[in-house]
Every structure is written in structure tokens, then in C-alpha cells.
Amino acid sequence: MATLDIILLKELAMATILFFITRFFIRSLVSKPNRKLPPGPTGYPIVGALPLLGTMPHVTLANMSKKYGPVMYLKMGTSNMVVASTPDAARAFLKTLDLNFANRPPNAGATHLAYNSQDMVFAGYGPRWKLLRKLSNLHMLGGKALDDWANVRKIELGHMLQAMVESSSQGEAVVVPEMLTFAMANMLGQVLISKRVFVTKGSESNEFKDMVVELMTSAGYFNFGDYIPSIAWMDLQGIERGMKHLHKKFDKLLSRMIDEHVKTAHQRKGKPDFLDFVMSNREKSEDERLTLINFKALLLNLFTAGTDTSSSIIEWSLAEMLKNPSIMKRAHDEMDQVIGRNRRLEESDLSKLPYLQAICKETFRKHPSTPLNLPRVSSEPCEVNGYYIPKDTRLSVNIWAIGRDPNVWENPLEFTPERFLTGKNAKIDPRGNDFELIPFGAGRRICAGTRMGIVLVEYILGTLVHSFDWKMKDRVELNMDEAFGLALQKAVPLAALVTPRLALSAYQA
């Protein structure tokens, strides 16, 4: 015990020395003309600004930016971090300096959850990342690939509608995130590995949802060990222990999926699925060799991000419409005029439903699925807004703050889809070119599933709104609190009663 105490004291002493070196020596070094760091909070010895972030970092950082400005510097342990909080600041980093910030910093999530950065999300910017991205776009996420599996989405959505009609007949509330996760996981499963992941909704699908939420939550934490590497071994917050345990559960699930997939290869002769295509590219060159670990890591990306981010947007949209019944009514009126009540909404209808699209954009703005973009890191020193940004500085773009900036949006705290129907906002698009609305990020590392995410949100949300009347259970209050994570969850899952509003024949799969 005495030996351990001595080691601990030595580690803390070294961390203290490193803090004062980086805090004062480096600041004085870069405070020469044109080498001034952006303004930011002072923080504390050793840990820097880490304790200031609290349990809702996106809110804390947004409030800090009101004091320190659109480009803000924080000393995070022994690491540098810069935060962009306005469209212009985001554009400077993600467009002008995109290549310099094309890599991810090392962190516990990438190590313990993403197979040591062997996936697409955390992989270094290089040949393997480009190959994984190319294969994903070509066989799943790109325009043609999305069209090819449109029928899968239609059929799986039909199963979901039938289950909802049954719940309605029994007077049961629909738990929205559980329902969406079940349906989306089955949609993705059929494209990825040619099977529905869950045959029936129940404990297995609910456990999967809990695993996805846990992954997104833990990956969003500001882990002390990521910012003070010398004390990472202590795992003071217990975050890494949780990640390792969760990784084992996901690895077991993914290994089983791949083993079953290999055994049934003969059944897919002439009809390869996504995993077949990816595995056929196992060896392209020495620099682009893919392994079993890469396949697992890629499936993990697609299953988790593909279910959680889109489902959270749909859940927030429905919650806002339950809070604002006039918005639900206007959406119903638009759909009844364009589609009627004798059939389901089709994906081809979406372009004729501008108010539905405005609802989706307004949800992307007010409740972005990723409140803080996945961190990037500078490969070389650079300058932004006259401030010096050192090499190896982590970048965080506060997408949540941009969406609620009163200098950008009129009455930003109000949910007003109409803002996207006329005027300067009518042409704003969430695909990464308009920095006022970047729910999927922007630049080279924009979310690979941007196109798929928009299609899923518009199609599924539109179908749910068109097909049912929605209301809260008696004496149940609608809770709009947030729960922070890599994806922005509702603190209390939405559960609501639905009543069919279409002809019964429209609910057949």
C-alpha cells in the first residue's frame, strides 16, 4: 500500500509539473504577435477546465461562448482544446482548415469500443478509412444503394405499423425509442447481413437498445484519462471499465452475426449483401488490407449510429408535435391533401411535403442528434480569427449552440418549422454545406450516413404522423429534458397513445 501511495504521489507530481509547463510556458511562448491563443476560462491546476463542463457539456460550452466568443480555448488537463460555436467559426475549421483537422484524437472510446480505432468513425485519415468509407457509400449509404433497399424500409415499416395498431387496440402506450430501435435494427440487419436482427420485439431487442444507448452515452463522456494520460491507468470515473464490459457484449453479438453469415453464404449466391461485398475486399493492397476486426468495427458503427441518431431525431420531433398540437394538425392537413387516407406514405411523396421536411430541419436545428461533433485534432499549427491554434489541439464544434444562436435564428428556443418555408432559411439544407445547420457535421469527416439519416427521418417520421393521431396518456406530463451523450437522448423516453387515422387496408405490410 505504501509503495502504491508513493507511485500515486509521483504521478500527481508529474501531472502538476506538466500542467504548469503547458499552462504558463506554452501560453507565454505563443503569446507573441499573431500567436495569441483564443480566449477561454482559466481552469484549475492539473485538470484545467475539465471540472467546469458539468453533466451537460454542450450547454456549459454554449454559455461560455457568450463570454469568450465564437472561438474558445480550454486547457483540458495536459491537452489543448478549441471550441467553435458559430456558423462562421465552424466553417473556418471544417471547410477552410478541413484537411488539417481530418484526424481524430486518441481516446478511450476509440480504444475500448471501436476496436482500437479499426472502424470508420475513429480511423485515422488514410487509405483504410477511405476504403471503408467508399465501400459503405457504394453498397449501403450512397444514393443508388439507398434506392436498392427502399423495399426493405417499406416492409419493415409495415411490420411496425401493424404492431402499433395492435397496441392501439389494446389501449397500450407505444414506447417510441424501443419501437424505432427494433424497426431500424431489422432494416439495417437485412441490408448488412441478410436477416432481421430481432424476430420479435422483446427482451433481446430492448437489451440491444440499452447497449446502443450505453455506447453513445459513454463515448460522449469527457474522460479524465483522455486529457491527462499519466493518470489514465487509474480510471477515476470508472468509464473505461464500463467500456470494456460493453465491448465484450457487442463483440459477442457481432462475432455471432459474422459466424452465422459465413455459414449461410451459399444461400446468398447471386444476391450478396453488404457484408459479402465488404469481405470480398479483404485485400486490396498492403495499405488497405481489411481484417475481421475491421468488419466487426464497421458493423458496430453502422448498427449503433444507424439506429440511435435517427431514432432520437424522430422521438424529439414527435415530442415537439405533442407539445405543439397545431404543428401536428398542419402536418396532417398537408399529408391528407397530398396522400389522402386510403394508402400509406411512400418515399416518393416526401418531395411534395415541404412542411414535413421543415419539421425535420427544425428538429435537426433544436435537437441535433450529435450536440458536440466527434472530436478532431489539428495535424499542424494554424490560425483562426487571428488566433493561434497549436498542433495536436482537439477541436469540438458545438452544433447544439449553433442551432440555438439568437444571432442566427429568430426565437431559437421555440420550435417553429415555418422558419424553413420562406425567406433566407428556405434553401438551408442539413447536408453539411450550410453551416447554420450541420447536424451531421461537415467536411471530409462528415457523418457517412448523412443521406441515409435524412431519408430514414423523413420517411419514418412522415409515416408515423400520417398514420396515427398521437396523445399522451392521461395524467402523464410530457418531459422535454435532455440526457447528454454522443447522441442527444430524451432524459425520459417518449411513450404515447396512438389511434389509427387511415383506412385499415393501409396498415397491411
From TrEMBL:
<comment type="similarity">
    <text>Belongs to the cytochrome P450 family.</text>
</comment>
<dbReference type="GO" id="GO:0033772">
    <property type="term" value="F:flavonoid 3',5'-hydroxylase activity"/>
</dbReference>
<comment type="pathway">
    <text>Pigment biosynthesis; anthocyanin biosynthesis.</text>
</comment>
<keyword id="KW-0521">NADP</keyword>
<dbReference type="InterPro" id="IPR002401">
    <property type="entry name" value="Cyt_P450_E_grp-I"/>
</dbReference>
<comment type="function">
    <text>Catalyzes the 3'5'-hydroxylation of naringenin and eriodictyol to form 5,7,3,'4',5'-pentahydroxyflavanone and 3',5'-hydroxylation of dihydrokaempferol and dihydroquercetin to form dihydromyricetin.</text>
</comment>
<keyword id="KW-0812">Transmembrane</keyword>
<dbReference type="Pfam" id="PF00067">
    <property type="entry name" value="p450"/>
</dbReference>
<dbReference type="InterPro" id="IPR017972">
    <property type="entry name" value="Cyt_P450_CS"/>
</dbReference>
<keyword id="KW-0408">Iron</keyword>
<keyword id="KW-0560">Oxidoreductase</keyword>
<dbReference type="InterPro" id="IPR001128">
    <property type="entry name" value="Cyt_P450"/>
</dbReference>
<feature type="transmembrane region" description="Helical">
    <location>
        <begin position="6"/>
        <end position="26"/>
    </location>
</feature>
<keyword id="KW-0349">Heme</keyword>
<protein>
    <recommendedName>
        <fullName>flavonoid 3',5'-hydroxylase</fullName>
        <ecNumber>1.14.14.81</ecNumber>
    </recommendedName>
</protein>
<feature type="binding site" description="axial binding residue">
    <location>
        <position position="447"/>
    </location>
    <ligand>
        <name>heme</name>
    </ligand>
</feature>
<keyword id="KW-1133">Transmembrane helix</keyword>
<dbReference type="InterPro" id="IPR036396">
    <property type="entry name" value="Cyt_P450_sf"/>
</dbReference>
<keyword id="KW-0479">Metal-binding</keyword>
<dbReference type="GO" id="GO:0020037">
    <property type="term" value="F:heme binding"/>
</dbReference>
<keyword id="KW-0472">Membrane</keyword>
<keyword id="KW-0503">Monooxygenase</keyword>
<dbReference type="GO" id="GO:0005506">
    <property type="term" value="F:iron ion binding"/>
</dbReference>
